[in-house]
Amino acid sequence: MPTDSAALAAARRQLLDDMVDQELLLQTALRDTSIKITDQQVQASVNQRLRDIREQFASENDYRRQLLASGFGTVEEYRRYLAEEARRSLTIGALQQQLREKGELHPLPPTERELRAAFERANGGQQHRPAAVSLRQIVIRRARSRA
After folding, report:
1. d(CA 88, CA 94)
2. pTM (global) more than 0.85
3. Where are the alpha helices (DSSP H) in 1-147?
4. DSSP state, residue 78
5. If phi over 0 gives left and psi between -120 and 50 gives alpha, with beta otherwise, what is residue 32?
6. What are the residues whose beta carbons fall under 8 Å from the beta carbon of 98, sequence distance 6 or more?
7. 98-147 pLDDT tens trace
8. Rg of the Cα trace of the chain?
9. How far is CA 64 from CA 79, 85, 120, in A?
10. With the CA atoms of 116, 121, 125 and 127 taken in that order, what torsion angle do they form, in degrees rounded to the nearest 10?
11. Spatial contact of 91 and 35, defined as CB atoms under 8 Å apart
12. What is the rounded distance in angstroms from the CA atom of residue 59 to the CA atom of residue 23?
């Protein structure tokens, strides 16, 4: 998280914009009667997510302590939360896939800023660029002599 107030305000604004965008996508998807997400899809997603999260803890007690610290009273409460999130995510994903197939959603190339940020993350926050070689060529066209 940013420490200075301007960067923190920008991060908050970006988070809010992202949340609004996600909600708008969800509302659009829910109005589309061709988009159907099954309970089996949701449960498969939840089960995978729970396995992935549980593997991060050495013991069941550590896992449950972290759930309590995160505001969840029980594993079942956490499962319900994950199910709601999975349903939202799968629904939005289905809408995006449908729009891609119709040619109405095109990937945006990353901005220079996004590329720099990705490069810095990949290099452990180091801001230096690797050595590069550049080449320039000047071509001079000579006039033919007429003799």
Report:
1. 10
2. no
3. 5-31, 39-54, 60-69, 75-101, 112-122
4. H
5. beta
6. 32, 34, 35
7. 998 998 887 778 888 888 888 887 876 665 655 666 677 777 777 666 65
8. 25
9. 13, 20, 35
10. -20
11. yes
12. 36
